[in-house]
What we know:
Blueprint: E1 3-9, H1 18-26, E2 35-41, E3 44-50, E4 63-64, E5 70-78, H2 81-90, H3 100-111, E6 121-129, E7 134-139, E8 148-151, E9 156-160, H4 163-169, H5 178-187, E10 200-202, E11 207-212, E12 221-222, H6 236-254, E13 261-264, H7 269-281, E14 287-293, H8 301-310, E15 314-320, H9 328-335, H10 344-355, E16 360-362, H11 367-371, H12 375-387, H13 392-405, H14 419-425, H15 429-437
Parallel strand pairs: 13-14, 13-16, 14-15
Antiparallel strand pairs: 1-3, 1-9, 2-3, 4-5, 5-6, 6-7, 7-11, 8-9, 8-10, 11-12
Amino acid sequence: MxxxxxxxxxxxxxxxxxxxxxxxxxxxxxRGPDEGGTHLEPGLGLGHRRLSIIDLSTGxxxxxxxxxxxxxxxxxxxxxxxxLIPELLSLGHVFHTRSDTEVIxxxxxxxxxxxxxxxxxxxxxxxxxxxxxxxxLARDRLAVKPLFYAHLADGLFLFGSELKSLLAxxxxxxxxxxxxxxxxxxxxxxxxxxxIFCQARKLPPGHTLTxxxxxxxxxxxxxxxxxxxxxxxxxxxxxxxELNKRLRESVRLRMISEVPLGAFLSGGVDSSAVxxxxxxxxxxxxxxxxxxxxxxxxxxxxxxxxxxxxYQTNHHCEMVASDxxxxxxxxxRLYDEPYADSSAIPTYRVCQLARQHVTVALSGDGGDxxxxxxxxxxxxxxxERMRSALPLALRRPLFGLLGRVYxxxxxxxxxxxxxxxxEGMARTAVEAYFHSVSILRAPMR
Length: 445
């Protein structure tokens, strides 16, 4: 990963402090330990910390077009950049590097804000066009790469890969957003577009933000959203074949790298599928990393070892204690805002282990959400069938009463734990799902 940050004067071209920009950039040193760079001109400052993955020798940032009127700082990868280069060359652009970053610059020159429609990848970038006096920010479709921003009362606009880079500026108020606190109690994190601070925001997934000097701050604009309709229904066998093709192509694109590459392997279906596909695409053994737990109830290392043996990977495994709380302060500094993911500590440990052997690691994160792998999805669909049998006007008072009076019997066999089901039946589908995933239910919040 890399880190980007910047300051933009929306009102004019005030001289910005180089030390402030450097401080904001250095606050994200851990994101890009290989190199750092800044660009400073009246009313604009851009910073970048680099973790080198592609074009190690000439991919330094900030990166410019031919006359340096366009400048970009970029975190992520454009997986189809090699396909876009010939098209951009045919449009008259001249490339001075072999990096995916330069594709962004020339794509902006040719296609403007629509350039993001052409990119396949995970990305967060900020691009400055001096001729248009425009700062353009974009985030990838599923928000893999983070991007925070804030409009200050004095007309300055701040952005960065992490909240800490905005705080390093010194001008961001630290007033806590009470709605963000409630989101945290419900979800275990603060969802886009909020942050824990009232004045800071996250750019939502699949959105861009275009700012022009001398004009009022604009609102983020969506360039992509997920469609939930099947335009061409497939038979099961056809769907399986199509899924295999898409997964293989997806993994192949993510294996384009000039540095050592590997995978996190838990032994679950998702990470095992990724490792299997990597093994089929790589002429050399795949590097895999796993975490084992000293508590047998949580340890899945044996399943990871089965997959590693089957695909003859270079497997590395490290034991983590079930009371490994030494990382709590470290994680608080890294995340910058409340975050209650129970896998945060083992994830950090497996990343530490992986960094000893590889620079880039693929994972199976998101597979359960994409393919309905959690038990809660099945339970929700069962509730949906019951909800569809009775109108809400009847369900709300009847099951609302049952939900209030039925005891919370966590100690009882699962068949008798009906309180959550009754509470869900008294709600709409969306309200019921939110209720079921909330860490603290509404009355407690």
